[in-house]
Amino acid sequence: MDALKLDAANYKDLLKHYIETQDEQSLYGAEQISKAFIKNNIPPEEIVNLHLQALAKLYPDLPAHIQHSLDFLLETMISYGLAHKEYQTLREQQL
Amino acid sequence: MDALKLDAANYKDLLKHYIETQDEQSLYGAEQISKAFIKNNIPPEEIVNLHLQALAKLYPDLPAHIQHSLDFLLETMISYGLAHKEYQTLREQQL
């Protein structure tokens, strides 16, 4: 299993744990996963996609309006992804 | 009404329209709003927060697990927000 698939599985497990307990430990795990994603050049919209997939697995009867709402949120994140990519390019130029 | 409040109201209206119709026009609107947010230094986690507030207004009986799941997603976006802030600093240094 590659690193991204492992992180995706971790994400779902942590999300499930957080939904059930709302504990700080899960939020710390979320922070660690997102840092790993950034390190691996995963754009923020990909996290929203991963989130939607995790929710659909955890709740097979997820209402259509929630799914559509996350597609919309994903779209808003694409601009942030592009801005972040530009940041990485600038950073590489400075190194 | 300030620009951010106006964008927040727009976001909710566009989201509602997209959920009802899934049309491309709403997605284009989402892109425009997110570009305005980036221009105004609004971090990505703030969009997730805005999204949660909009959903809660559109669906007053939004299940607790959906709300908790968005709190979790918000946490993952904070790292992206920090990375983006660093990008802005680099950019300012280059200008």
Secondary structure: elements and pairs:
The structure is a homodimer of 95-residue chains.
Chain A: H1 3-21, H2 24-39, H3 44-58, H4 64-94
Provide an overview of this structure:
2 copies of one chain form a homodimer. Chain A has 95 residues and is mostly helical. Chain A is built from 4 helices and no strands. Chain A has helices at residues 3-21, 24-39, 44-58, 64-94. The longest helix of chain A is centred in the last third of the chain and has 31 residues, at 64-94. The interface between A and B is large, with 40 and 40 residues.
How many whole angstroms does the radius of gyration of chain A measure? 15 Å
Which quaternary structure do these chains form? Answer: homodimer
- Give the beta-strand count of chain A: 0
Estimate what percentage of residues of chain A fall within beta strands. Answer: under 5%
Which stretches of chain A are poorly predicted, pLDDT < 50 over at least 5 residues?
none
* Helix content range of chain A: over 70%
The DSSP helix count of chain A reads 4
What is the distance, rounded to the nearest whole angstrom, between the alpha carbons of the first and last residues of chain A?
A: 32 Å
Mean of all residue-level pLDDT scores of chain A:
90
Largest sheet of chain A: none
Class inferred from helices and paired strands of chain A: mainly alpha
Question: Which pair has the most extensive contact?
Answer: A-B, 40 and 40 residues
What overall form of chain A do the CA principal axes indicate?
globular
